Amino acid sequence: MFNWSTAALVATCACISLVSAVQNVKVQGADFVNNVTSNRLQIIGVAYQPGGSDAFGKGSDPLSNGTLCLRDAALMQSLGVNTIRVYNLDPTLNHDDCVSIFNAVGIYMLLDVNSPLPDQSLNPGDLDGSYSSTYLNHIFSVVEAFHNYPNLLGFFSGNEVMNDVGDGGPVPPYIRAVTRDLTNYIAKHSPRLIPVGYSAADVKEILTDSWAYLSCAIDGKMDPSRIAFFGLNSYSWCGPTSDTANYVASSYDQLVDEFGKTSIPVFFSEYGCNKVEPRVFDEVPVLYGNMTDVMSGGLVYEYYEETSNNYGLVWLYDNGTAQIRVDYDNLQSQYNKLDIKALESGNSSATMIQPPSCSKSLIQSSTFNNSFVIPDVPSGGQELINNGIKDPMNGKLVSVTQTQVALPVYGSNGGLLKDLAIKPLADDQSNTPDGGSTSGTTTSSGSNPSGTKKSEAVQLAATAYLLAGILVSCIFNL
Ligand SMILES: *[C@@H]1O[C@H](CO)[C@@H](O)[C@H](O)[C@H]1NC(C)=O
Ligand SMILES: *[C@@H]1O[C@H](CO)[C@@H](O)[C@H](O)[C@H]1NC(C)=O
Ligand SMILES: *[C@@H]1O[C@H](CO)[C@@H](O)[C@H](O)[C@H]1NC(C)=O
Ligand SMILES: *[C@@H]1O[C@H](CO)[C@@H](O)[C@H](O)[C@H]1NC(C)=O
Ligand SMILES: *[C@@H]1O[C@H](CO)[C@@H](O)[C@H](O)[C@H]1NC(C)=O
Ligand SMILES: *[C@@H]1O[C@H](CO)[C@@H](O)[C@H](O)[C@H]1NC(C)=O
Which residue ranges does the record annotate as region Disordered (predicted)? Predict the structure, then answer.
């Protein structure tokens, strides 16, 4: 039932919630923890790159269109995720609408600072040439664009820069150099300490060495070139009819052994092998089951179905229409079975392991670099770190005035989802699976499984409008 006193009550809480629905998350030992409640955050995430990496560099990026983000945030909220990963970002675009929408629904962001455009990533074939002050200026501008947002979980200094055994020779010192420069820039210019990590390709021969090399301490615990978390892109568990769908055959048991002594959070920065389709995600109960002491969850690759790559959870069309794939439904039902309370209550004092000091003996492979001499900041780079980049563009939260998704979205069964909307969360909450099914109920969205009648929807819209008005006054009062 709708009445104005309820609306006013809701609005009072919404003052806080729509501006800062999430609290900062920090790294504590081998865990991500909420900076206020000390609850552990296990990453329940998806990779978010609508359009694929080819779409980048054409005047938009995945976080630049609020209309599309509202649609996707509503679907992700019903799915149950608490984190997205975005690979390619243009720091000259405005991300306020999108990030504020994800913030309102309690979804954190892991962001890559690099892009495929020239001078915007390290080139393993030309390390010295690509590690330049022009490059640093780009990655620092990504920091500036995002560092004010409370739902920023961390930056990746690199993604799969080491793609084969050979890269393990020359590349590692450069990843530490980039991590150092980002960490130093953040310490000087950002409102809080935002962790910087690395996302590794699934190259078995150099995986443990990569983690050991990047996470040891060269000069005590505060060494800025040390990564704050380690992501692993893992595709070793391939569904029920493959012979890899168990704890041992997928080599998940080895990961737990190898990373059991980790001093930093380790998680799957991508997972979701698609050799068996549709995917049923039967690795989910294992990842969030007996691996949770060691692993901090993972991000499913990927939200958007790229042209027949069959890694997508949702089809997105140029006209703004979306349709859920059955993989989304399967993942949703796996997430619904998780015991979130148990996942949040990890004992992080049990995982406070001091980082080992860097030494040759940490490195096992004979071809992996075991020198911890890190390249100097390239010419012109230290001035950027000391003084900040010129004319930075800083994003900031804005009020979220629209909750109802205006674009048509279809369930996997073809039914139109009526009244699909985001459901802004109260202060201090991150999103969790809600037990609903999105495709199954064509008269309502999963985030509102009991169904919203049309008249109520109009009233909800009125409430949203009221909230927006109050919110604006809240912001001006802050
Ligand atoms: C954690 O919260 C404290 C107190 O509000 C704040 O000073 C600090 O910057 C926060 N740290 C992080 C890493 O968010
Ligand atoms: C390992 O790193 C050191 C220090 O940066 C560098 O001088 C050396 O060439 C690298 N080794 C290989 C095999 O590339
Ligand atoms: C983890 O779960 C798998 C089943 O998926 C089981 O085979 C394995 O023994 C378990 N490991 C531990 C350490 O409990
Ligand atoms: C949007 O495009 C898709 C794919 O081409 C099509 O199936 C759908 O009917 C279109 N929707 C609208 C509302 O035009
Ligand atoms: C955002 O996407 C919608 C739906 O595709 C489109 O109509 C609109 O023009 C886009 N807005 C901007 C600013 O690009
Ligand atoms: C957390 O772990 C530590 C170390 O294993 C242990 O001493 C402590 O009792 C645990 N605390 C809780 C609340 O379980």
Answer: 426-453
Handedness of CA 186, 158, 167, 297 (dihedral sign): positive
Position 13 in a domain: no
Structure tokens at 215: 């996470």
The answer to pTM > 0.90 is no
Q: Active-site residue numbers?
A: 160, 270
Ligand 1 atom with least separation from CA of 193: 13
Q: Using the atom order of ligand 4, give the atom closest to the CA of residue 321.
A: 1
What crossing angle do the helices spanning 172-189 and 204-215 adopt, rounded to 10°? 40
Q: Which has the minimum average pLDDT: 167-181, 275-289, 339-353?
A: 339-353
Residue 363 has pLDDT above 60, yes or no: yes
Q: 148 lies in which domain range?
A: 22-477
pLDDT 10s digits, 59-72: 999 999 999 999 99
CA of 350 to the centre of ligand 6 (A): 6
Inside any domain, residue 7: no
Q: How many domains does the chain have?
A: 1
CATH number at residue 412: 3.20.20.80
Q: Determine if ligand 4 sits within 6 Å of the CB of residue 4.
A: no
pLDDT surpassing 60 at residue 142: yes
Q: Is 187 in the pocket of ligand 6 (CB under 6 A)?
A: no
Note whether residue 2 is domain-resident: no
